[in-house]
Predict the structure.
Amino acid sequence: MSNERDKAILELLLKEKEVTVKQLASHLYISEPSVRRDLARLERQHLIKRIHGGAMIEKDALSKSKIPFTIRELEQSDAKIVIATKAIELIHDNDVIFLDASTSAYNIIQFLPSKKNITVVTNGVRALEKLAEYDINTISTGGNLIASCKALVGDDAYRTIESINANIAFFSCRGLSDDGFLTDIAPAENHIRKRMIANSKHSYLLCTSDKFGKQYFHNLCHKDEIDGIITDMRQAEI
């Protein structure tokens, strides 16, 4: 994202779905020509679609398998903080922790300094940057980069994960179906999560309440195969 204004535009569009140039100019305290230039830039990135007198979120940006990290970071941001405060209670001093590249897992990092002598293993590029800021002992999975969602995937990442025995894994997905399947639209990221689940003593899905009842084409696992679901509404031990 080129600047904070772009981020503010996307955040408003995620809430309202469609906004006018006049609304954006008033919201951002800038001129309408400046808004139009910003919208043109965001449209070139395939994040929004300009319409007469305004803009709307580009639907493909939310449905493609490579969802831009910035958009995902803005979705349900308050709920993800609630989830992170619940997740941190499950972490103990000296733990080895798997974090996937999701924004839900990313939000846990700010609370990790309260724990002593922990090690975090992650395939999230943004997570690696944040962990470095807090000087937390960190292992990168390595692997091939999916640039748009800042995730490392592939055989090298698998080998790293499979070589480590973790105490706990935190991960997310796009939807939890009514019959209990954790589903997503990105198989490469799901393959990472499968290995994190298999190589940790305990595993927890981080799931904002808007994902309940949603089903996508690629199954990660069934909820009975993990230890619990942490959500902004409640924590369900299963």
